């Protein structure tokens, strides 16, 4: 099937969406940036995750969606507990550092352990200590529902936003 081949959904024909177009269109939705962390036997681990949201108040659940290509998520899944750190506007460097593979992501990073033992990064806007609740197939991502055990926020900090492929809100040059 090519990108222009239609799919059949019920009695309707649906055009296949070009992934580049979908990424561009959805890039117009500004999102926060998180770093998901845990303390493993070999030391702290973590990864940057832009796909994060509130899910439920009763029970207290959040959702995140790590890429299927993530090498860190399977290790966090096996631990069953982790901390979602909501980055502040001056922490773009942390976002980039935790998005890399094959490096010590915690080199030079200040943090303290949560009550559950997961790293809470210094200077974040908010953090949520979680346990794995459920996982679902999300195409090229895994949809993770996590139960919140503990959380806190710093109302004096502003969040790091990702918009149209860059950090911060991107102004339209033609406007």
TrEMBL record:
Question: Gene3D superfamilies given for it?
Answer: Electron Transport, Fmn-binding Protein, Chain A
Q: Which GO terms describe its molecular function?
A: FMN binding; riboflavin reductase (NADPH) activity
Q: Which SMART domains match?
A: Flavin_Reduct (SM00903)
Please state every residue range assigned to the domain named Flavin reductase like.
26-169
- What keywords does the record list, in alphabetical order? Oxidoreductase
As for family, the record states: Belongs to the non-flavoprotein flavin reductase family.
> What is the protein's given name?
Flavin reductase (DIM6/NTAB) family NADH-FMN oxidoreductase RutF
């Amino acid at each position: 099937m090519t990108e222009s081949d239609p799919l059949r959904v019920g009695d309707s024909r649906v055009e296949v969406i070009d992934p580049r177009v979908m990424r561009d269109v959805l890039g117009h939705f500004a999102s926060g940036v998180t770093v998901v962390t845990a303390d493993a036997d070999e030391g702290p681990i973590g990864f940057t995750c832009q796909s994060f949201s509130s899910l439920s108040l009763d029970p207290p659940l959040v959702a995140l969606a790590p890429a299927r290509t993530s090498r860190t998520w399977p290790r966090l899944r096996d631990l069953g507990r982790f901390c979602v750190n909501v980055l502040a506007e001056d922490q773009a460097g942390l976002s980039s550092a935790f998005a890399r593979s094959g490096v010590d992501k915690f080199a030079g990073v200040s943090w303290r352990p949560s009550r559950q033992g997961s790293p809470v990064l210094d200077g974040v806007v908010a953090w949520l200590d979680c346990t794995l609740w459920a996982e679902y197939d999300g195409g090229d991502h895994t949809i993770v529902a996590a139960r919140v055990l503990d959380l806190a926020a710093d109302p004096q900090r502003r969040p790091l936003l990702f918009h149209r492929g860059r950090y911060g809100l991107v102004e339209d040059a033609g406007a």
